[in-house]
Write a structure and sequence with these properties.
- The strands form 3 sheets. This protein has a 6-stranded antiparallel β-sheet. Strands 11-10-9-12-13 form a 5-stranded parallel β-sheet, with helices on both faces. It has a two-stranded antiparallel sheet with strand order 1-2.
- The protein starts with 5 loop residues before the first strand and ends with a strand.
- The longest helix is centred in the last third of the chain and has 13 residues, at 252-264.
- With 286 residues, it is α/β, with parallel strands linked by helices.
- Helices cover 21% and strands 29% of the residues.
- It contains 8 helices and 13 strands.
- The structure holds adenosine-2'-5'-diphosphate.
- Adenosine-2'-5'-diphosphate is lined by residues 141-142, 169-171, 211-212, 220-222, 251, 253-254, 257.
């Protein structure tokens, strides 16, 4: 990846002057710490940047200077954009890893600080990669909720489906809070209710579960699906390729396990170039 872009905007024909531009910088506008392991933040959005809700970009900070050369390189990681495509800012939801090269530093950002953002969004968790259906399932663990924070605020989600089911499995109750508050906020979001239709949020069925702390619904979503408990609790039939579409974002073991289950229900994996029944993205951890 190109780390510094040489620009020649001040060059004349006679004396070409090459100037090194700073990497793409955006300004932090908001930071909220949810637990000692999780935080979210918002940054300014490059005026020309377009993306589809559910996509990710590379973001990061300048690394420490090389002890020998003194040169600094950007330290970048892929982050799902948690805000919807119409939002004037960009939101991200991140884990804090105390010895992680990036998040050990990123967790200390404050409003007014600069971060690096490469404005080249990509990803498979997009509506374009799915065939029409009746229900959309969003399956998340941990910070894998991020692309769904975008898609839950995307009008197309409600235009395309009668029911929107979001499952979120976390270790502890506090880790559900970002998602819980976001879903709650949709009820009173005047702009979205006007844009999508009054009461659009009634299409959402929220299914939070915890695995290591007591909560009303405990267990891994995969186990709860195998037992049929999820379908009974939600009052929906078992997942089938005629009615159901799914997007998956979580840790690697989870992604693999649920992928196998979805295939077992008869769903076929889709892509931008070949829309099908479900798509998978891994959560990008430090
Ligand atoms: P568990 O506590 O049983 O490992 P993490 O924070 O490690 O990314 O995990 C987030 C959540 O995902 C945890 O609740 C964890 O449950 C759950 N999880 C991990 N692996 C799987 C899997 N293969 N299937 C379903 N859930 C999983």
């Amino acid at each position: 990846m190109t780390e510094m872009r040489p620009v020649t905007d001040q060059a004349t024909d006679a004396t070409p002057v090459k100037k090194l531009a700073l990497p793409d910088a955006q300004t932090v506008t908001f930071v909220k710490h949810w637990t000692d392991r999780l935080f979210s933040f918002r940054v300014t959005r490059p005026a020309s940047m377009r993306f589809r809700s559910g996509e990710f970009v590379m973001i990061g900070l300048m690394g420490d200077p090389d002890p020998k050369t003194g040169k600094q390189k950007p330290l970048l990681r892929a982050y799902s954009i948690a805000s919807p495509s119409w939002d004037e800012e960009l939101e991200f939801y991140s884990i804090k890893v105390q010895d992680g090269p990036l998040t050990s530093r990123l967790q200390h950002i404050q409003p007014g600080d600069a971060i690096i953002l490469r404005p080249k969004p990509v990803g498979t968790l997009v509506h374009d990669a799915l065939l029409p259906g009746k229900r959309i399932w969003f399956f998340a663990t941990g910070t894998g909720f991020a692309p769904f924070a975008s898609l839950l605020r995307e009008p197309q989600t409600y235009e395309d489906y009668d029911e929107v089911i979001i499952t979120h499995t976390c270790r502890e109750v506090g880790e559900l809070q970002y998602g819980r508050e976001l879903i709650e906020s949709l009820k009173t979001d005047e702009m979205l209710n006007e844009l999508i239709g009054e009461g659009f949020w009634k299409k959402i069925k929220y299914y939070p579960t915890t695995t290591r702390e007591e909560s009303p619904k405990m267990g891994r979503i995969t186990d709860l699906m195998r037992k049929g408990e999820v379908f009974a609790d939600l009052g929906v039939p078992q997942i089938n390729p005629v009615e159901d579409r799914a997007m998956v974002c979580g840790n690697l073991a989870f992604n693999l396990e649920i992928k196998e289950m979805l295939e077992g229900y008869g769903l076929v994996e889709g892509a931008n170039s070949n829309p099908q029944h479900y798509v998978v993205e891994k959560a990008f951890l430090d």
